[in-house]
Specification:
Layout (H helix, E strand, L loop, with lengths): L5 H14 L5 H11 L8 H7 L8 H17 L1
Length: 76
Amino acid sequence: MNSLDPQLRDFILFCVERRGGDWPALYDEMATVSGQHLFRGLGYTELKQLGLSLALDGLDETIQLVNQAIAQEEQG
């Protein structure tokens, strides 16, 4: 498993905490949070630079990143 950028992991976990891990509610929350720069000022552009695209054609990779962030959190 590739290393996940800590800021990206924290963004995902922030969204999970706010909305839960169920899809598509989590995707909607991630889009809202990034659209309004609610987490450390990160928006779509900054998240893309960290490796997270919220584009619909990249959802498989987005789901993998979410699963990775949650797994890392559960491992402590």
